[in-house]
Amino acid sequence: MSRAISSRNAGRARPAAQHSTAGSADSAPTAVRSTVSERTGKVAVAVLVVLAAAACALMHFGTFGLLLGVMATLGIAAVAVAILSPRWIYALLGFLMACLANASIPGAGMSFGFVLTLLAWVAVLTHPVTHKRIHSMEIAVLALVIASFVATLVSAQNKHDVKLFLTWTVATSLVFLLLRLSSRDLLLFGRAFTLGTVAAALFGLFMLAFDKQGTLLNHLWFLGYGTGPDSGGTNLRYYLGADGTQAVRLSGTYIDPNAGGIFLFIGLGLSLALYRGTTRVVFSVVIAVAMLATLSRSAIAATVVAAIILVLFHRMRTASRTNLVIGMVVCAAAALSVPTVAERLLSSFGSSDKGSADRGSALAEYPSQMAGHWWFGRPWASPEFVDAKVNYQTNFVANSPLLSTYRGGVFVGLAFTAVLIVGILVAARRVRHRRFEVALLGAGFISFAITALQLDYPVVTLTPVTAVFSMFIAFMVAAPRVVTQAEPSPEPATESSPGAHRAPESGPRTVDPTPRPHAEPPVV
């Protein structure tokens, strides 16, 4: 009798154990899926040792050989880290994407983001993938990449066009890369990006307060910033008011205040979604203040629209909705109490606003600018895209879908619009999610698509902004699982806690034959 009971109990417990094991694949601290196999590790180490020996041999062939050997050694070491300890690559990529978005590797002529993204792909391709399902958002992005590739084949005139297209493709590939990561690794990446955003925000605020000449950034010349430590060139960016007064805008390591506003907007969303408690409050306040200091109307407008979407469409208690509205009013009043911010926002789209006049003229000139370029656009390395002076003098249409058409032709423009439409449909489902943090990322994407991308175009013209937009897409798609992963782990129950289970007593087990009523179903 006791054997039959034990066998029956074991049969009932087995499915639960299987379910528990499958459910903890992402969250287990020592998950097997997050490490490389022993055999692969041994082969990788052997290959890397041989390559390192070859790199050392190069160092004996003059100055060029020494330089080539050092670079090869560093590259081999980076690949070794990507294979043997990929989480370091994910964290470093997320941090540097936000903190030093425009930095390049000294002497290599390549950005940190480009190289680290390739290393992250090495890590993903050499480890088992936990999430293999292809999302509809990925199909839309792939269609955009294919349309851009065809346009490049037709319009490219030299190797610089191909190089810029490949750089853009690597930045866009972050959508596919991040969605392959486990929830644990994706959370690590997102939190590292948030930390980098906070660091960049603090540095930008420091420059705004103390760097009155705008020369501090010149000391980062070895990373591709500024104009050199002794040049005396300024890195300040100004807003010209209606009365002719100038106000300095926060730019920091983002260089362009409008691009900085996009980074800070996305960083603000991730800080609210991926952190909890005091850390979330402090990080969000720092990032929000920095975003306001950029005076980027597209980023500020996107933030306001995202809050309105949450109030109108997210399912929440009346008290929570009321508190959110009160918080919005208080934040708006605090922002408008700053004279520069108030003038920047309240004068928008007025008759005295030069930006509105330029937008109107750009729209009027757009058909003539597109003459002869409707099908496949212009070369990627056209002067207005790569030369700062020509870019400043060119009155681009301040609209990302239209500018995508300007550069890549009508098929690229339609594909970019399709990405936004599919993204809005996916984000709408996120807004209706029961978790506030998931709804927040969905509302943020919708507001960004219908506001920021319609008022500005750095996502199209600047590769670092393309990369952060691709990252935003990935986090919006994976929001339910990564937000769940961000929740603090419950503390183990102790004997004194109400939910603790007592250890079974020794001795023979007795079975109570009295039937017991079924438990009531849980209230959802």
UniProtKB/TrEMBL annotation:
Segments of skewed composition (Basic and acidic residues): 515-524
Keyword Endoplasmic reticulum assigned: no
Transmembrane spans: 43-61, 67-85, 92-122, 134-153, 165-182, 188-210, 259-275, 281-312, 324-342, 406-426, 438-455, 461-479
Region (Disordered): 1-31, 486-524
Taxonomy, superkingdom: Bacteria
Keywords of the record: Membrane, Transmembrane, Transmembrane helix
Record's compositionally biased regions (Low complexity): 486-500
Name of the featured protein: O-antigen ligase
